[in-house]
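Slack export, channel: ligand-projects

TW: morning all. Re-posting the request from yesterday since it got buried. We need the structure predicted with the small molecule present, not the apo form. The ligand is flavin-adenine dinucleotide; the SMILES is in the block with the sequence. No rush, but it would help planning for next week.
GE: picking it up
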Amino acid sequence: MNPSFTDVVIIGGGMVGLAVAHQLLERSPGRTIVILDKEKTLGRHSSGRNSGVLHAGIYYKPGTIKAHVCVSGSHRLRAWCEQRGLPINACGKVIVPQRPELDGQLDVLAERGRANGAIVEFWDAKELKRKLPVALTSSGRALWSPTTAVVKPALILQRLQQELQERGVHILTGCLNWDVDPDRRCLELPNGGSMSYGHLINCSGLQADRVAHKFEVGLSYRLLPFKGLYWQLKKDCGIQIPTNLYPVPDLDIPFLGVHFTPSADPEPVVSIGPTATLALGRENYRGLEGLEAIMTANNVLTLANQYIRNKGGFRRYVHEQAFLALPPLLLSAARELIPSVRATDIEPSQKVGIRSQLFDRDTGKLHDDFICMPGPNSTHVLNAISPAFTASFALADEILDRTCLLEAKT
Ligand SMILES: Cc1cc2nc3c(=O)[nH]c(=O)nc-3n(C[C@H](O)[C@H](O)[C@H](O)COP(=O)(O)OP(=O)(O)OC[C@H]3O[C@@H](n4cnc5c(N)ncnc54)[C@H](O)[C@@H]3O)c2cc1C
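GE: finished. pasting the full token output, ligand included:
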């Protein structure tokens, strides 16, 4: 093998990129793999900043890729953590309708969950009171998901990175300004070196559209960044929430609403969030850090247009979720689930993440499913939104199946 040649290059060492490398090794141990990430350490973006919920597969429309990979991905990641003794809070999840008219949505969720292979159970108000006395159901019913769990994403990434490196995967970090010649299958690296490859897989998360555009792939797609801020219950507030507690989501918009999540720590911290407000940049985690003024102006115009045309119930997202970063609104959303929560019971959390949603300029629609597009000697994972962390191992298999990499001559 030519030393500057690698069989497969993966751009992005988040959970999706690492899981793709893992599954590639399972299928074909002899292949050379390089993962290239622009950051000095892995986990600086979505995979290191998420809620850590292993979703049970309830929300997703049967027939979508999400529905196909969530349940098996969740089982596989959970078993992988168990085998390594990594922390898991097997606390389950309750979904409650925050207004009586949302009760019917519980049936839709239960139907979807069962069709996807998830276990769900209905609880009446008595059962809810017994299991989670602080929670309220506005309709007398709640949906229980016993297999939802919470993990520690940063520990999972670290362990997976270590195991991949031990198995010979090269992980090049701090590789920001690389360039590519797709026809020659050649990467120019920031240190002046170059590397040719057989196939390239783009798993670059919040930047995946920009990377794809270098290959003339997905030119009508643009990722819109939404900031997710969290609050948390104060340790001494006296409110006990031993399980995940979620509202009934608006199934037309891609966010699940503000929820309570106990962490997988020995003494769980209960986070409240995340919110979903337009971010000022793809990596605008705090203040003006990572500000992208022109992109933001374009995104504001796009969203204003969506609002006016009310595409996909977009106005409801704006009314119900866009301003939840404002503490009084967040608190009132939290009180719909737990009426006894007071302003003095919660405090801001250090956690913040950015969720990207893929917008198609041709159709004027936000995409709600994973997208995996072929390009010249390359594959582009364009919308690795939630539950991509949960589903990562199964999603990786799906990506590799679609890539037909094993048959390709590299
Ligand atoms: C607030 C929040 C809460 C969430 N909660 C959950 C949850 O509870 N459960 C769940 O299953 N999912 C959740 N998700 C979704 C989940 O975190 C993501 O779907 C998943 O982490 C995506 O992984 P990824 O590898 O595609 O992206 P990332 O983790 O963002 O990784 C992409 C990597 O690509 C690198 N990169 C980007 N551009 C380049 C470039 N040009 N060159 C080289 N490298 C590059 C980045 O540095 C990064 O390391 C949540 C997301 C957020 C933001």
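GE: first-pass observations. The CA atoms of residues 14 and 47 lie 6 Å apart. Confidence is low (pLDDT under 50) at residues 406-410.
TW: perfect, thank you
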